[in-house]
Design a protein that fits this description.
With about 150 residues, this protein is an alpha/beta fold. The protein is built from six helices and five strands.
């Protein structure tokens, strides 16, 4: 388990589990005690944008959107202009598309999130396989089973 004072960058899919208040979100809270570590949970500004876009796409009502806003306010949001993020974005994109055999192209949002984790030197928590090829060369990731919320790796 991660010490309570370690920083963790949360991927969009992790935030979605918390907002849905489902079994996966409850398991994550039980295992990682996010409410006990409010200053240690980080998100990229890209994740914040993705969450507001998902709220619109899913047709969330005003109450649920307000809940989303309140939860996002509790997290530290990392701006893309932080020194090093753009360089890490370029390196990760090049590595994924030109050095990996076979190539592992990534979505733009995932590239920004990975670059943020790499720049900060923090663990990225995700349910996605999209970051697997970057671990541990560029990022350290905590992989979560999307169905159970249990830590896989």
């Amino acid at each position: 388990m991660i010490p309570l004072d370690d920083l963790i960058l949360l991927d969009t899919n992790i935030i979605l589990q918390f907002i849905r208040k489902n079994r996966v979100g409850q398991q994550l809270e039980s295992d990682y005690q996010f409410r006990s570590r409010p200053n240690c949970s980080l998100i990229s500004c890209v994740t914040k944008g993705e969450m507001y876009a998902l709220a619109m796409k899913f047709g969330w009502g005003e109450e649920k959107k307000a809940y989303l806003s309140r939860q996002l306010e509790k997290l530290t949001v990392i701006d893309l202009n932080l020194v090093g993020i753009i360089d890490n974005y370029a390196q990760i994109d090049y590595f994924s598309e030109k050095l990996m055999k076979p190539a592992r192209p990534m979505g733009q949002n995932d590239l920004w999130i990975a670059a943020t984790a790499a720049t900060l030197g923090v663990c990225l928590m995700t349910t996605d396989d999209d970051f697997d090829h970057l671990h541990p060369k560029y990022i350290h990731r905590i992989k979560i089973d999307a169905k159970t919320g249990k830590t896989i790796v």
